[in-house]
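Morning!

This is the sequence you dropped in the shared folder:
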Amino acid sequence: DNAADAGPAKAQALYGWELLYGTGAGATERGQRYVFEAAQGGQPWALRHMAEVRNREGQWALAEKWLLPAVYGGDVEARFDRDALYASERPGVEVKASNALEIFQSLADGDYAARARVSLADMATRGLGMKKNPKQAMQWLLPVAEKGDLNAQTRLGLGYLYGDFGKVDEAKAKRWLQAPLAARQGWASKSYGGGLYQHGQ
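The structure's back. Tokens below.
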């Protein structure tokens, strides 16, 4: 307690995380208080956490406000979270999906190519900032998935499972999701289970 109470923001964020997700899990109110204070101090993870909470509550304008300090501080995760918010064109957020599309396209061949290509593929399959284009989505995903990127493999596998590329293909879905599931990638496990339930498996 003393270390977190005395600051700095990093210590507050670490202690808040422990209360929310670690050994002290269950102390939600105290954990949120420490994370809030860490976010006020500019700690990137805490800022992203506060944005995620507001995003789940449908307070998208507030989510954007929490993300921006982390973005301006150079946090890459916050930048992708912000651009995903823009891509979805949530009420209260002025930046449009077309702007997010341009940003992701500018990153598609740089240091963050894999992450950007997964984002672009998601926009193409959902018709955000462009017409739905499953073929283009596949072209963005395959090169990085074949190189072993777990996020790309997950998106590709889920695309086959949910029919984003046409007909549902559970065999291909299982093949592409094998590595992400073995690595215990959270959103792969949750979405794969939901997909199987949806298809009556």
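Headline: The two ends are 47 Å apart (CA to CA).

More detail when I'm at my desk.
O.
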